[in-house]
Amino acid sequence: MSLNLKAKYEKLITDAFLNEKEATVKMAIPRLEKIVINAGVGDGASDVKLIESMNNDIKNITGQTPVLTKSKKAIATFKLRENQPIGVKVTLRGERMWNFVSQLINVALPRVRDFKGAPLTSFDGRGNYTYGVKEQLIFPTINFDDVKKVRGFDVTFVTSCKSDAKAKLLLTAIGWPFAKPKGK
After folding, report:
1. Residue pair 105/122 in contact by the 8 Å Cβ criterion
2. Which of 110, 111, 123, 144 has the fewest CB atoms within 10 Å, i.e. the most exposed one?
3. Read out DSSP for the chain?
4. Rounded to the nearest 5°, which phi and psi values hold at 77?
C-alpha cells in the first residue's frame, strides 16, 4: 500500500525527526509551509497572449488560478511600462501543495532527459529551496499542441527551517531527488 506524500510526512518523517532528536516536540519538527511558483514572461510586455498562455499552463499544472505579476517601474530599454503584466505566480498550501510536490517528484522529474538530480546550491540561507523547471512540457497535464512557446518557471519550497541543513534533511525525507555530490 503506497502512502500519499502528506500521510508519509505525518507518519514517517515526523517520527524520524523525533527519534533522531532533531526535534524535541512535534511543533518543532520542520515542515513544508508553502510552495511558490513564479513564471516570468519577458516577451509578455509585447504580446499579452504569451502571458495568457503561461497563465493557462500554470493553472493546468497546479489546479489553482495564478496571479498576474506587474512591473514596478518603467524601463525604456526593455520597452516596459509601469504596471505592465510581466509574469504569473501562484502560492500553493495544504492539499494542493502536497499534490503538486508528489506530481513533481513522481511524474514530472522522471520525464526530464538526463536528469541527474536537483542541485544542492539552490538554498537561500534561511531554509528555503528554489528549483528551476526548464520547460512546462514535463507535466502530463500540459497538452503539447496548446503550448505557444516552451517556457520554464521557478518552484520555491518555503519551509519552517531556520538553516539550509535542516531544510535539506526535510526535503530529502520527503523524497526530493538531490544530485549526488561530485566525487562520491
Report:
1. no
2. 144
3. -PPPHHHHIIIIIHHHHHHTTS-SSGGGS--EEEEEEEEE-GGGGT-HHHHHHHHHHHHHHHSS--EEEE-SS-BGGGTB-TT-EEEEEEEE-HHHHHHHHHHIIIIIGGGSTT---B-TT-B-SSS-EEEEES-GGGSTTS-GGG-SS---EEEEEEES-SSHHHHHHHHHHHT--BPPPTT-
4. -65, -25
If one counts every other C-beta atom within 10 angstroms of the C-beta of residue 177, the result is 15
Directed axis angle between helix 94-103 and helix 48-62, to 10°? Answer: 100
Integer Cα distance of 99 and 83 in angstroms:
33
Residue 88 grid cell: 504569473
The pLDDT-based confidence of 6 (bands split at 50, 70, 90) is confident
Nearest partner of 51 among 29, 82, 84, 80, judged by Cα: 84
pTM of the model: 0.84
Query: How far, CA to CA in Å, does 22 sit from each of 25, 30, 85, 165?
Result: 9, 9, 44, 11
Task: Give per-residue pLDDT as tens, 44-101.
Answer: 666 778 888 888 889 998 999 999 888 777 777 776 677 777 889 999 999 999 999 9
Q: Please give the backbone phi and psi of residue 117, each rounded to the nearest 5 degrees, phi first.
A: 115, 160
